[in-house]
Amino acid sequence: MSSLHDLLAHEVVEGIKEGLFTAEEYVSSLIKTIEDVESKLNSFITLDTVGALSSAKLIDRKIKENEDIGYLGGVAVGIKDNISTKDIRTTCASKILEDYVPSYDATVIRNLKQNGAIILGKLNLDEFGMGSTTEYSRYYPTHNPWNLDYVPGGSSGGCGAAVAAGECTVSLGSDTGGSIRCPASFCSVVGLKPTYGRVSRYGLISYANSLEQIGPICRSVKDIALIMNIISGKDNSDNTSMSSSPITINNKLDKFDIAIVKELINDGDHGVTGTIYSTSDKFKEIGCTCDEISIKNLHYALPSYYTLASAEASSNLARYDNIRYGFDLPIEEYKWDTYFSNVRKNFGEEVKRRILIGSYVLSSGYYSKYYLKARSLRSLLKLELLKLFKKYDLLIGPTMPILPFKFGEKIDDPIKMYLVDINTVIANLAGIPAISLPIGFSNGLPIGLQMMAAPFEEQKLIDVSHALENTINIQRRPNLT
Amino acid sequence: MIGLEIHAQITVLESKLFCSCRGNYRDLRPNTNICETCCGLPGTLPIINKKAIEYSTMTSIALRCKVPDKIMFYRKNYFYPDLPKNFQITQYNVYGFSSIGVEGLFELDDSKKIRISRIQLEEDPGRIIYLEGGMNVRNSALIDYNRAGVALIEIVTEPDFTNPKEVRLFLNKLSLTLEHLGVCNTLMEGSVRCDVNVSMKGGNKVEIKNINSFKEVEKAINYEITRQTSMYNRNIKIESETRHWDDKKKITYKSRSKEEEHDYRYFPEPDIPIIVLGDNFVANLKDHMPELPHQRFDRFVSKYNLSVHTSNILINDKKLADFFESTLKLYFSPVEIANFLITDFKSMIEDDSNSTDYLRNTKVKPEHIAELVQMIEGNKISRITAKDILIKIFESGILPSEAVNNTSSFKIADEKTLMDAVESVFKTEKSAVEDAKRNHEAINFLLGKVMKFTNGRADPKIAMRLINNKLNKPDP
Amino acid sequence: MISKDELEYLAQISKINLSEDEAKKFPEQLDKTIEYIDILEELASDDLNVLDLQEVKFDELRDDVVKMSEELRITKNMTEDGFLRGPKMK
Question: Whole-model pTM?
Answer without folding.
Answer: 0.89
